[in-house]
Amino acid sequence: MSSPMERMIRERMEVIRSKGRLRTLRAVRRVSPRECVIDGKKLIDFSSNDYMGLSMRPELIRGAVEWTERFGTSCGASRLISGTSGACLELEEKIAAWKGFEGALILSSGYAANVGIVSALAGRGSAVFADKLNHASINTGCLLSQAEFRRYRHSDTGHLEKLLAMSQIPEKLVASDTVFSMDGDLAPLSELFRLSREHGAMLFLDDAHGTGVTGVRGKGLASPENCDVALATFSKAMGAFGGCILCSRELREYFINVCSPFIFSTGMPPSTLGAISAAVDLIQTPEMEEARSHLHALSGIARDAIRSLGFDCGSSETMILPVIIGDATKTLEFSRRLYEKGILALAVRPPTVPDGTSRIRVSLNADHTREDVQRLIDALAEIKKETAE
Ligand SMILES: Cc1ncc(COP(=O)(O)O)c(C=O)c1O
User: Fold this and answer.
1) Residue 341: is it exposed, middle or buried by C-beta count within 10 angstroms (0-12/13-18/19+)?
2) φ, ψ for residue 368 (rounded to 5)?
3) DSSP bridge partners of 38
4) What is the pLDDT of residues 130-160, one digit of tens each?
5) Residues lining ligand 1, Cβ inside 6 A
6) What is the rounded CA–CA span in Å between residue 389 and residue 386?
7) What would the pLDDT profile of 58-78 be if each residue is shown by its tens digit?
């Protein structure tokens, strides 16, 4: 006899399968930021968020090794117990200086930081106004906070303004991604800031996909001039791992005292801190400035070419290019055909994206070449023909 919960699990999995939404894990061997091997097959990788190709750079590898040799493999405890080293505090100061904020606080992942930021700022008696396409971790933070949770239509500041004006709740938090992870478009940052100020709300910007790849010296799109709190992640363009809260000194002290994923989780291992430290140095060099220019130019070329084939790339303005197919099963088939042609670009389906907007998420990185992009475009053109027949 199976228990009610076991029956529920089987039924849920049946629904997931029947809707073409089953997710599976497969072993991928990354051989460089632009190439990987799956089941012995070499592919051009358009799936990773290693936008600046840093994850295999000798500087980061050396940083990880050196910090491990100096401090060991674990920091041994929560940061409030004995898990904060002097080196970690210095690194936070270096990050804050780079990003232009007074304070930086490293957490174990961007996901944990988002959950922690929102649930620390909002609570019963506050209201959170969030873009409908924000990252799932922001939504989780809202639910955990027990605040009133209002979602505005994607990037629709008119809708946000209405919701803010209607709300009787004094404590307000507006939360938005800067670069939307599945659409590659940019939030209306100056409008968000203006509305937040007009309605006495705090503004939180999740700069996970802006950090390292946009802005002067890669410092991203969020700054103390356009928000109150920001999230950076080191897991994407920075080629390492981990999240970081950026804010005023006063707010940093607040998070240290009330941010649950910070308080109740072991601090970041020295290896990762060493890689982050090297990435923060490297990302600010002229070499990386050039790499960013190359990446943005290449993204423009790819976007124009994909659109001219008749595909819908939404409002993408960055290195994240959605190729919106619509139906989940068709999108899976599209991804399979790309794989056959030596290209890894994965199908993203609901619930990650809204119903009817399943897509191939193409993400470019600075190591990609014009030839790589041409192969992608040729493959998309061929598949379009094959599937139209
Ligand atoms: C917009 C956004 N915020 C936060 C995160 C979480 O960051 P991390 O991967 O460091 O946990 C992601 C990761 O996918 C993201 O896309």
Assistant:
1) middle
2) -65, 150
3) 41
4) 999 999 999 999 999 999 999 999 999 999 9
5) 109-111, 114, 135, 137, 177, 181, 206, 208-209, 233, 235, 243
6) 6
7) 999 999 999 999 999 999 999
CA-nearest residue, atom 1 of ligand 1: 135
| Predicted confidence (pLDDT) at residue 389 exceeds the cutoff of 70 | no
Question: Cα 189–163–317 angle (5° rounding)?
Answer: 30
The residue among 147, 118, 320, 333 whose CA lies nearest residue 231 is 118
3-class secondary structure per residue, the chain: CCCHHHHHHHHHHHHHHHCCCCCCCCCCEEEECCEEEECCEEEEECCCCCCCCCCCCHHHHHHHHHHHHHHCCCCCCECCCCCCCHHHHHHHHHHHHHHCCCEEEEECCHHHHHHHHHHHHCCCCEEEEEECCCCHHHHHHHHHHCCEEEEECCCCHHHHHHHHHHCCCCEEEEEEECECCCCCCECCHHHHHHHHHHCCEEEEEECCCCCCCCCHHHCCCCCCCCCCEEEEECCCCCCCCCEEEEECHHHHHHHHHHCHHHHCCECCCHHHHHHHHHHHHHHCCHHHHHHHHHHHHHHHHHHHHHHHCCCECCCCCCCEEEEEEECHHHHHHHHHHHHHCCEECEEECCCCCCCCCEEEEEECCCCCCHHHHHHHHHHHHHHHHHHHC
Cα–Cα dist 169/167, whole Å: 5
Q: Which residues contact residue 164 at a Cβ distance below 8 angstroms, ignoring those fewer than 6 apart?
A: 129, 172, 174, 195, 198, 199, 201
Nearest atom, ligand 1, residue 180 CA: 1
Ligand 1 atom 7 nearest Cα: 110
**Selection from 50, 60, 57, 36 nearest residue 235 by Cα:** 50
CB atoms within 10 A of CB 347: 23
Enter the pTM of the model.
0.96
More confident residue, 210 or 19: 210
Would you say how long the chain is, in residues? 389
What is the set of domains in the chain, with CATH numbers? Answer: 20-49+286-388 (3.90.1150.10), 58-283 (3.40.640.10)
Tell me the CA–centroid distance for residue 374 and ligand 1, in Å. 29
